[in-house]
Amino acid sequence: MTINENVFSVKVNGISSLYELIDAKEKLGDACLVIVYPQSSTVIGRSSEEISAVKEFLSNAGFITAAAFESDADEKLAPLFDLCLRSGEADEYVGKLFKDKTKKQIKEINACFTAARTAPAEKVLEIESRAFYRLMADKNGGNSNE
Question: Is 94 left (phi over 0), alpha (psi -120 to 50) or beta?
Fold first, then answer.
């Protein structure tokens, strides 16, 4: 497995089991987006314990998770990630997602994405609304009313 860190994203290649992500969580650091490029032979885990650990890790990750597939998304792996991308389009997506955004803006985007994994829609909308008002307050030099 190879891990390439960028300013806001991390690319993971050559992964045979998603369980390897748990062992590498320190290397994922403060990433805002982790893109995994699974191989056709990549598995979730090698045992039921590993599979459960991977599902918990990805559902509680503090970053946006994405899988970049060469062709069609793998039916077993895809549901574990926040996003599924075509591998040839992943860099362009990252560029569009983070273009001209500050670290604080990206953190607010992450909060919305990660909350959407488990929170009800009303809670996600509340988080999104609060993030919007915090960012507008920063932009305008005012108070966020929080």
Answer: alpha
